């Protein structure tokens, strides 16, 4: 068994992958992310990648997701590809933007949630500090 380094170009992430396991399985077994994970069996197409450098072996994959032209061009399903050298790849699948391109969107969402939490906290503090004036009831 030989291990190779797989690099995801969009994120610069790397992971080791044995020549006995698929690129997707190798990534998952190390708790890494970067390639979208679906059926793990070549049926859904979400793990589609383009191998831009390196050598590999491939198992049969659905023509619904990988045309002959794709296959010749290295556009394959990561769950059906095993490395034979260090590899570089780009993520192509339908879920690409959810995995590789969420950093800015995620940070904006976190900032919005933090702002809302601060507003709620301030409102709670204002409510707790309210003083009932004579002729007013505190509620
Ligand atoms: S995970 Fe479904 S085709 Fe690879």
What can you see in these coordinates?
The protein is an alpha+beta fold and 139 residues long. Helices cover 31% and strands 22% of the residues. The chain has helices at residues 23-29, 68-72, 96-100, 103-128, and strands spanning 3-8, 14-18, 48-53, 56-58, 75-77, 81-83, 87-91. A five-stranded mixed β-sheet has the order 2-1-7-3-5. The protein has a two-stranded antiparallel ribbon with strand order 4-6. β1 (3-8) and β2 (14-18) form a beta hairpin. The longest helix is centred in the C-terminal third of the chain and has 26 residues, at 103-128. The model is unreliable at 101-110 (pLDDT under 50). FE2/S2 (inorganic) cluster is lined by residues 24, 37-40, 42-47, 77, 79.
Task: Enumerate the distinct ligands.
Answer: FE2/S2 (inorganic) cluster
Instruction: Please state the average pLDDT score.
Output: 81
**Cα distance, first to last residue?**
71 Å
User: Strand order, biggest sheet?
Assistant: 2-1-7-3-5
Please state the CA-atom Rg, rounded to the nearest Å: 24 Å
Helicity range of the residues?
Answer: 25-40%
Topology:
Elements: E1 3-8, E2 14-18, H1 23-29, E3 48-53, E4 56-58, H2 68-72, E5 75-77, E6 81-83, E7 87-91, H3 96-100, H4 103-128
Summarize the structure.
With 139 residues, this protein is α+β, with helices and mostly antiparallel strands. It has helices spanning 23-29, 68-72, 96-100, 103-128, and strands at residues 3-8, 14-18, 48-53, 56-58, 75-77, 81-83, 87-91.
